[in-house]
Amino acid sequence: MLDIARLFLLSAALLFAGCAPVLPHLAPTPAILKDPRLDFATQLPPALKTTELPVFYATTREPTDGPERYGNGQSENVNLGVADVRLGEPGWSWQQLVASDMASSVDHPRDGAVLAVKPFGSAGRGAELTEADRAFIQAIDAQLARTPNPSLVMYVHGYRVTFEEVAVQMGSFAHYLGQGTVVTFQWPTGTRFWNYVTDCPRARQSIPDIERMLELLSHTQAKQVNLLAYSCGSPLLAAALANLREHHQDLDPKALQQRYRIGNVIFAASDVDLKTFARDHVQPALDLSRQVIVYYSRIDRALGFSSLIAGASRLGDPNKEDLEGLDPKQLRELANDPRLQAVDVTDVRGAHEMGGMKGHGYWYANEVISTDVTLSLRYPIAPAQRCLRQQPGSQAWTIPDDYLDCLAKRLLAAYPDLAR
Fold this sequence. Notes:
Blueprint: H1 2-16, E1 52-63, E2 70-87, H2 94-103, E3 112-122, H3 131-146, E4 151-156, H4 163-176, E5 181-186, H5 195-202, H6 207-217, E6 224-230, H7 234-246, H8 253-260, E7 262-268, H9 274-288, E8 289-296, H10 301-310, H11 328-335, E9 340-344, H12 362-365, H13 367-376, E10 389-390, E11 397-398, H14 403-414
Parallel strand pairs: 1-5, 4-5, 4-6, 6-7, 7-8, 8-9, 9-11
Antiparallel strand pairs: 1-2, 2-3, 10-11
Signal peptide: 1-17
Pfam family, one: DUF900
InterPro entries: AB_hydrolase_fold (IPR029058), DUF900_hydrolase (IPR010297)
């Protein structure tokens, strides 16, 4: 009877769950960038005030000869390259893009496109760098040298998205980060709702490739590397970090952080087993980084269905009862570690999806939540310092109603040149 019930739930989940395929579009502008007191463009050199920017990629998608540069097939290699991404409509000026930033909303997505890709070749498999590896590092360093933002972001996406959709979405975040340097790790996934059943489990074969990508990025000149994983991209990043830690048993956390320079590790709407994450993934991620931030929502229907199908709660929609059986001492230590932050976004006003299942895309669809995500993609700031609050008796952080006003005032106090 239980198997029949789960089969029914699986069918329902596949009808609605996951990240819905749409034409490439920009994410709505984070709310802090719209604040009339602030002008972030003043910090940007004139040469970077453009509607086109690079988005670097490492992908296990198979190259195609069609308009979609990389398809849904599994490549035998990790292909490295850079995509030239256009933000906004063809022919837009910088001023038109900025004006659209101020007026953007989740209800009116703005177009974007990949104009061209420049492949560098196949990544290596071991410690030795290939010619493509070196070209990839050199191109990233060149972008880092052009921008005042010294941080690098690597993003691991969820399922049911295309290569171009991911590139344009993260191109918009590169724009919001002041022409920041962004790398997407793209694994093959189809564009049908039923691809969830096959694509997310199959994606686990990319875990060693993500681990090597973290090694490769440590060769760049980035001051720090911030990591973001979404939906069923989260177990891939979490396992890659655990493997990386396992392969460096001779190094203590301080040495690991100096070597890899990982600032924040961010998990958003994560489709990963809660108990597995607590037992196997948290400590390695903490050893390698300065902070681990978990965004979760109790109105994320995609993860609600996923939890029912798996018979256990997901990290992005947690149930404390599913932590029973784990070492109580270890759980207390994790709960009291200020570097591990659980941010409950359930009650944040505004959109929590932009296509796809209700409540699953909040990290980019909701302009208040995306403000905190964008800030965390730039700086490893403690939650209280970035205006989050803890409810009495709770260890989870929340985004209060006065969050944006508090944040704007703190940014102006720290960076007076931002005043409009």
